[in-house]
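Module 6 notes. Inverse folding takes a fixed backbone as the condition and produces residue identities as the prediction. Think of it as a translation problem where the source language is geometry and the target language is the twenty amino acids. Below is one complete input and output pair. Work through it position by position during the lab.
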């Protein structure tokens, strides 16, 4: 096997490089051929026993290129750049896309390239033309894709190319980061140095940006194979870009830069010169590049319009103004030469640059459209203008040769003005489309360019000091301490190390109220520090920050297609052939009508029009008034603006599909804990089942050593000592509530705690049941009914009655069991969020959505909480294990419901993924929850209302856009065809039709831009006692949106329909509910003098069962007063 490097002459584009690759690769004995266009080099690996060097060189020359052999050598594995993976992922920028027909054409062309994975091809029109594709390196290359796209008439530029191996590695090790160093000189030394630094995974040369002819000329002098191989890796020793993949838990870019510049070996060779940190792939760079590209596109359209207008306006004045004024008309009708008048000569000369210079784009695109079989709008423009121009040329020649008395009228103004108005429309459309991506630009502009680093320096006397140092944000590392002064933006995500302040997070979360921050609080990059100075420890950098993730989500959403877009694509695919047919039929019909004298031209015959020219006007008008672009822009522009508006309000919608799905949701399932409730349970009531626990620890051995109250206190302390010891370290919300209550008794591991927690042995977590462990030699179980049953625990009398009592009060009852017996029932209260009831009532009454609650709690507790916030008890799904939540969603879907699941995105992931729309609420900085299609950054339940309202608003706008686009074409084509001419005697001039066509696209984009005016619904709540039987509570909701204002009364559904109250007896808040007006109550007792003894059932509403040895004092004597 041998490898030869050739210097190739005569290559001008990617088609040339592809031609060489294909031609040489087909030769017997050739293993591979790689052509680097920018370096004008080809590297061929071949079997010299089957093919000779001279034959390869001859093949290249036969293909029409010059080939000069640089050097032949045996391939050295260590020197050759071999792809680590079979597949590569590339991103390209596209130029020339105007509508969905264009995107479809590109998609079809790329899919035809061998080696391309069809499912990976993604072409997006907005915010800027872009192609994402994955392909097999062994079959095709990026050059092959560039050739395919250029062959159908679109511009294409490679933005990035990543081996699939790198992608896999990055996903498997999320702590790996990429950095780019631009090095002025000695790049090889820098690469070698960095390769040996701990924490650096890979170092390679990279070149994401074009460097012009200077780079090409530099490498034409290469004469060795090594140089050619290095060039194959796009390596240059000067002005080089190094891509460094590193573990940011081990080393950072700043450390790499400092150590690299101070290396003695590098310094001995003259140093590296100027070294800068480049950032080619971050969201800020992408946003700047996209903004620059949009600005360039707008300027190009503007220049084309000005050039065309400079010629077409004089044509218009000559034909439409001066020809109607006697003096100028007489001069213009005089002949110049060969029987051609001044009017004909001047309009011909002036319209020709417009036709073939300004209109060249349409000819070029038409050629490629015909070649590819994907007809677009350009072919309509090219045919229409060409017909008008060719007819006018024919008229000029006819008039010159025949010199008739009634000269035929030329139509040069038609073609010139038509092209000018189309270009003007494209200019206005480009300007409007640029505004649709304003959300990304604004988000990117929030980022900070530099940060104030606090560095610890040593003083001569052995003490230390902190110095402030301004550094670029790209050099900030994980673990750095940054100083954020009042009024400054937080540079990146982190945790407050020192200081307190309030921070304005409204720009990211939509929450207008500043958030208090203290030591240990999380802060988000790009938010504004309002008052105090903060020192923050960096936790996330670069693409891992919340802002970067938000931008990425919004970008993905804006470039996605909702299912309804397929409708527009289908129409667009047949639109142009239909219009061509309609234009031809219109022309033929008018010719027939005029020749048979069925129709009369009226005044147009007096103006010099003949039958053919008159019919031609209608045919051309039909061609140019039709607009497939409006259809293609209807959906993506609305999705772009709408998702940007959502991001501004802290609602991240991941694309068009969930946006469309949310519009059709008719059932919402809320997870209870942390979603409808605060997620921070606190201990409510504690019901003691016996006095046995008073004997553990240092307590006296007998209850006789104290009063009933003292015994209660001792038992209660031991209950929480055992419970807190068992739950210590658990992250479960119920465990945190127990730990918090134990703290009130002085039990814990803090220095100020009176009683320390015991060590735990044999700990096991029984999912859905509880926990089991050993504390101080005692077997402790804490859990629900299933825990008691599973562990064969002996339930003391009244255990289940006590649990039911607490559950009816809306508390979650957990039982403490010691040595196989139940000892206490602890009630934990997880209060409903303030806006839970409001959200439920609005969803059910305004959006007509059925609301369900899903929880692992028992049915009684769950129904009590559900009733308190307005959820129908029949829609409570309780006693559900974590792994069963997705099955519950599937069951509802099986009943014909379109379900949205709302949870915290952590243990609800399977259910979120199973639902038609998964909504993760309270995501905070963790916005990249994969299982959720909609991410709400705040914990406000009212954002759920905004989500559904916004999705419906966006979808209404999409429908309106479709209605306008379809209505415009449905009405415009018949009018342009002359359907109203018999009544109005007016022809729609082609240039007016062209202007109308342009306005249709502009109108659709402008319609989508109106979504920026969206305001979230306003919800006003009235509190009173009328609806809650004397208890102050929510009484009336006033819902105000852009479409309506509606009041919502608070009452159970059954009573609103005239039926009986269906609320649980202990949770009824309905007005005038005779059924649940309770006739019994427990009178308050003096806890000090008449406290019940542990185990007495009067505590939970049952008769005292202590018997003759009752030690409850006066509590039993007044146990139940019936009134």
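Target side of the pair, the amino acids:
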């Amino acid at each position: 096997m041998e490898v030869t490097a050739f210097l190739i002459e005569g290559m001008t584009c990617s088609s040339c490089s592809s031609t060489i690759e294909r031609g040489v690769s087909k030769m017997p004995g050739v293993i591979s051929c790689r052509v680097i266009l920018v370096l004008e080099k080809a590297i061929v690996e071949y079997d010299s026993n089957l093919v000779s060097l001279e034959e390869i060189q001859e093949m290249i020359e036969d293909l029409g290129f010059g080939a000069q052999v640089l050097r032949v050598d045996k391939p050295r594995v260590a020197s050759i750049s071999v792809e680590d993976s079979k597949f590569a992922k590339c991103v390209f920028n596209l130029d020339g896309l105007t509508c969905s027909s264009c995107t479809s054409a590109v998609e079809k062309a790329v899919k035809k390239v061998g080696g391309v994975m069809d499912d990976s091809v993604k072409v997006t029109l907005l915010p800027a033309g872009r192609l994402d594709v994955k392909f097999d390196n062994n079959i095709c290359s990026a050059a092959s894709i560039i050739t395919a796209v250029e062959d159908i008439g679109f511009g294409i530029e490679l933005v990035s190319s990543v081996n699939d191996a790198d992608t896999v590695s990055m996903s498997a090790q999320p702590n790996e980061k990429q950095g780019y160093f631009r090095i002025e000189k000695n790049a090889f030394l820098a690469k070698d140095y960095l390769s040996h630094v701990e924490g650096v995974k890979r170092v390679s040369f990279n070149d994401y940006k074009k460097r012009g002819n200077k780079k090409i000329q530099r490498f034409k002098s290469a004469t060795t194979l090594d140089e050619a191989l290095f060039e194959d890796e796009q390596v240059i020793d000067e002005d080089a870009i190094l891509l460094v993949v590193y573990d940011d838990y081990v080393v950072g870019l700043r450390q790499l830069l400092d150590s690299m510049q101070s290396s003695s070996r590098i310094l001995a060779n003259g140093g590296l010169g100027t070294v800068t940190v480049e950032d080619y792939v971050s969201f800020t760079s992408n946003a700047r590049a996209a903004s620059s590209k949009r600005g360039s596109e707008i300027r190009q359209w503007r220049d084309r319009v000005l050039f065309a207008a400079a010629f077409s306006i004089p044509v218009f004045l000559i034909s439409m103004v001066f020809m109607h004024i006697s003096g100028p008309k007489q001069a213009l009708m005089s002949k110049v030469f060969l029987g051609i008048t001044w009017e004909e000569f001047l309009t011909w000369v002036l319209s020709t640059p417009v036709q073939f210079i300004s209109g060249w784009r349409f000819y070029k695109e038409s050629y490629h459209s015909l070649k590819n079989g994907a007809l677009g709008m350009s072919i309509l423009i090219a045919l229409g203008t060409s017909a008008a121009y060719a007819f006018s040329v024919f008229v000029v020649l006819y008039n010159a040769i025949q010199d008739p008395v009634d000269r035929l009228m030329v139509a040069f103004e038609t073609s010139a003005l038509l092209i000018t108005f189309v270009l003007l429309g494209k200019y206005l459309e480009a300007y409007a489309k640029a505004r649709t991506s304003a959300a990304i630009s604004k988000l990117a502009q929030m980022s900070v360019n530099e940060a104030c680093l606090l560095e610890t320096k040593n003083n001569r006397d052995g003490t230390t000091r902190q110095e402030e140092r301004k550094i670029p944000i790209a050099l900030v590392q994980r673990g750095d301490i940054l100083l954020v002064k009042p009024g400054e933006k937080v540079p990146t995500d982190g945790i407050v190390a020192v200081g307190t302040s309030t921070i304005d997070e409204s720009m990211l979360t939509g929450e207008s109220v500043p958030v208090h921050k203290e030591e240990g609080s999380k802060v988000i990059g790009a938010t504004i520090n309002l008052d105090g100075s903060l020192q923050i420890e960096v936790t996330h950098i670069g693409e891992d920050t919340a802002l970067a993730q938000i931008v990425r989500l919004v970008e993905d959403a804006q470039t996605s297609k909702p299912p309804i877009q397929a409708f527009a694509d289908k129409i667009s695919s047949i639109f142009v052939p239909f219009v061509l047919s309609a234009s031809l039929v219109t022309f033929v019909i008018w010719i027939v009508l005029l020749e048979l004298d069925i129709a009369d031209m009226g005044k147009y015959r007096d103006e010099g029009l003949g039958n053919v020219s008159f019919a031609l006007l209608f045919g051309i008008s039909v061609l140019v008034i039709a607009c497939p672009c409006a259809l293609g822009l209807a959906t993506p522009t609305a999705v772009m603006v709408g998702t940007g508006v959502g991001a501004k309000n802290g609602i991240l919608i991941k694309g068009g599909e969930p946006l469309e799905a949310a519009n059709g949701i008719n059932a919402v399932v809320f997870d209870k804990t942390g979603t409808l409730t605060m997620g921070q349970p606190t201990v409510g009531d504690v019901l003691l089942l016996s006095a046995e626990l008073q004997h553990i620890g240092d307590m006296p051995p007998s209850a006789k050593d104290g009063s009933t109250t003292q015994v209660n206190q001792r038992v209660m302390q031991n209950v929480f000592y055992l419970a807190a010891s068992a739950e210590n370290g658990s992250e479960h919300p119920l465990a945190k509530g127990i730990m918090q209550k134990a703290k009130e008794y002085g039990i814990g591991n803090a220095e100020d705690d009176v009683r320390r927690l015991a060590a735990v042995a044999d700990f096991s977590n029984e999912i859905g049941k509880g926990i089991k462990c050993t504390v101080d030699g005692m077997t402790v179980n804490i859990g629900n009914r299933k825990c008691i049953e599973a562990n064969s625990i002996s339930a003391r009398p009244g255990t289940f009655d006590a649990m039911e009592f607490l559950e009816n009060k809306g508390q979650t009852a957990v039982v403490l069991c010691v040595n196989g017996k139940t000892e206490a029932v602890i009630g934990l209260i997880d209060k409903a969020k303030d806006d839970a009831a409001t959200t439920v009532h609005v969803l059910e009454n305004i959006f007509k959505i059925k609301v369900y609650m899903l929880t692992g709690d028992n049915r009684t507790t769950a129904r009590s909480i559900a009733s308190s916030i307005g959820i129908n008890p029949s829609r409570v799904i309780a006693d559900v294990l974590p792994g069963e939540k997705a099955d519950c969603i599937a069951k509802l879907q099986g009943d014909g419901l379109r379900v949205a699941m709302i949870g915290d995105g952590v243990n609800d992931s399977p259910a979120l993924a199973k639902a038609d729309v998964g909504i993760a609420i309270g995501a905070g900085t963790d916005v990249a929850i994969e299982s959720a299609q909609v991410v709400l950054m705040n914990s406000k339940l009212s954002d759920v209302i905004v989500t559904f309202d916004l999705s419906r608003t966006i979808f209404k706008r999409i429908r309106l856009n479709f209605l306008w686009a379809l209505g415009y074409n449905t009405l415009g084509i018949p009018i342009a065809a002359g359907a109203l001419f018999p009544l109005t005697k007016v022809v729609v001039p082609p240039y007016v039709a062209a202007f109308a066509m342009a306005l249709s696209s502009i109108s659709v984009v402008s319609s989508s831009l109106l979504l920026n005016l969206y305001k979230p619904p306003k919800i006003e709540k009235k509190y009173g006692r009328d609806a809650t039987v004397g208890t102050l509570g929510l009484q009336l909701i006033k819902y105000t949106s852009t479409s309506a204002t509606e009041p919502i009364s608070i009452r159970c559904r059954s009573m609103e329909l005239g039926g009986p109250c269906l609320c649980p007896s202990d949770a009824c808040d309905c007005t005038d509910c005779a059924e649940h007006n309770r006739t019994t109550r427990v009178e308050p007792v003096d806890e000090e003098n008449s406290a019940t003894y542990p185990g007495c059932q009067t505590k939970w509403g049952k008769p005292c069962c202590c018997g003759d040895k009752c030690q409850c004092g006066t509590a039993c004597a007044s146990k139940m007063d019936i009134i």
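Reference fact for the lab report: The chain has 39 helices and 41 strands.
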